[in-house]
């Protein structure tokens, strides 16, 4: 997938502060953090967004959430954190590659905005 910044990070062609990686998922610190802990959790497989998931991606999406749980513990925010997935530009998705934001380390309000 030429031009996808997350694919480039997953292939290690771009530098990032990686906090987790395995054969399916890579996670790294957000360059523009919105909380003291702001990690992007990204499947290595290029999937545009939630609308492009197929039934064969169920295990992958489950694994992403388990990675979020482990990172929340590692970063010591397990007492309160968010896992967010924006779908589409109107929702705030700025990179056309499925990704989840793990946010923690501060009190959050509801509704978020």
UniProtKB/TrEMBL annotation:
The lineage of its organism: Bacteria, Candidatus Aerophobota. It comes from the Bacteria. A motif (Histidine triad motif) lies at residues 97-101. One of its GO terms (molecular function) is catalytic activity. This is Histidine triad nucleotide-binding protein. The active site is at 99 (tele-amp-histidine intermediate). Residues 5-113 form the HIT domain. It comes from Aerophobetes bacterium. Pfam families: DcpS_C. PROSITE patterns: HIT_1, HIT_2.
């Amino acid at each position: 997938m030429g031009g996808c910044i997350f694919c480039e990070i997953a292939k290690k062609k771009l530098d990032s502060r990686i906090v987790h990686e395995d054969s399916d998922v890579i996670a790294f610190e957000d360059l523009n953090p919105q909380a003291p802990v702001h990690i992007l959790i990204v499947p290595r497989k290029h999937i545009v967004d939630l609308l492009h998931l197929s039934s064969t991606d169920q295990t992958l999406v489950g694994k992403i959430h388990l990675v979020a749980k482990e990172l929340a513990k590692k970063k010591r925010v397990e007492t309160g954190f968010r896992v967010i997935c924006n779908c589409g530009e109107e929702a705030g998705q700025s990179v056309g590659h499925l990704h989840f934001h793990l946010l923690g380390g501060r009190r959050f309000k509801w509704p978020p905005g």
